[in-house]
């Protein structure tokens, strides 16, 4: 059992294939769409807040809109960063499990 997780490497290969086939116009359009989602969500949130229509705990949709917009705006940076963190956690967990089982990797 190898015990090596490499989600970020797989994402980079996938993203390179997408950008090669779709061209730079696709990434530019996705970046613009992501920024519009972020700006739109923040404008609606602050507009509602100034009008007193913001109830407690309803800002969750803003967080999700910002996350979605950020991923659209910078998938070549954010996805590898997030997946590298997941790789480290998964590989550490697998390594600890293998060590506890006596299986040196």
Characterise the protein shown here.
The protein has helices at about 5-20, 25-50, 60-75, 75-100. It has a domain at about 25-90. The protein contains four helices and no strands. It has about 100 residues and is mainly alpha-helical. Helices cover about 80% and strands about 0% of the residues. The mean pLDDT is about 85.
In a nutshell, what does this entry contain?
With 105 residues, this protein is mainly α.
What brief labels describe this structure?
105 residues, mainly alpha, flat
Content-based structural category: mainly alpha
The low-confidence parts are: none
- Roughly how much helix do the residues carry, as a percent range? over 70%
User: Ends: how far apart?
Assistant: 8 Å
SSE topology sketch:
Elements: H1 7-22, H2 24-50, H3 60-73, H4 75-101
């Amino acid at each position: 059992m190898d015990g090596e997780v490499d989600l970020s490497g797989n994402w980079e290969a996938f993203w390179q294939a997408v950008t090669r086939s779709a061209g730079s116009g696709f990434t530019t359009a996705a970046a613009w769409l992501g920024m519009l989602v972020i700006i739109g969500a923040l404008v609606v949130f602050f507009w509602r807040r100034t009008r007193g229509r913001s109830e407690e705990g309803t800002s969750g949709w803003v967080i999700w809109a910002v996350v979605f917009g950020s991923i659209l705006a910078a998938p070549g940076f954010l996805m590898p960063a997030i997946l590298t963190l997941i790789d480290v956690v998964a590989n550490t967990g697998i390594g600890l499990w293998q060590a506890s089982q006596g299986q040196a990797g």
